[in-house]
Design goal:
Number of strands: 0
Structural class: mainly alpha
Radius of gyration: 14 Å
Helix content: 40-55%
Distance between the termini: 34 Å
Shape: extended
Oligomer: single chain
């Protein structure tokens, strides 16, 4: 399998949970995220269903800051 590098943004609390789980399993952050996505049904939601900001791609940092920690 060819690996592809991607950058994602998530709430800090979620990132901490994934880090803890990766340490517990003695694996990588990426492996945990991959495992979770592979277990999820094919109907993954995407950012396009968020309608609170029509310019989401331009304002993603501001929108994410509303999520808090």
């Amino acid at each position: 399998m060819r690996a592809v590098r991607r950058t994602i943004s998530m709430p800090a609390a979620v990132a901490r949970r994934i880090e803890r789980e990766a340490k517990r399993r003695k694996t990588s952050f990426s492996a945990i995220v991959t495992d979770l996505v592979e277990r999820t049904p094919d109907d993954l939601p995407y950012a396009g269903v968020i309608d609170d900001d029509p310019d989401l791609s331009l304002n993603v940092n501001e929108v994410l800051s509303r999520l808090g920690d």
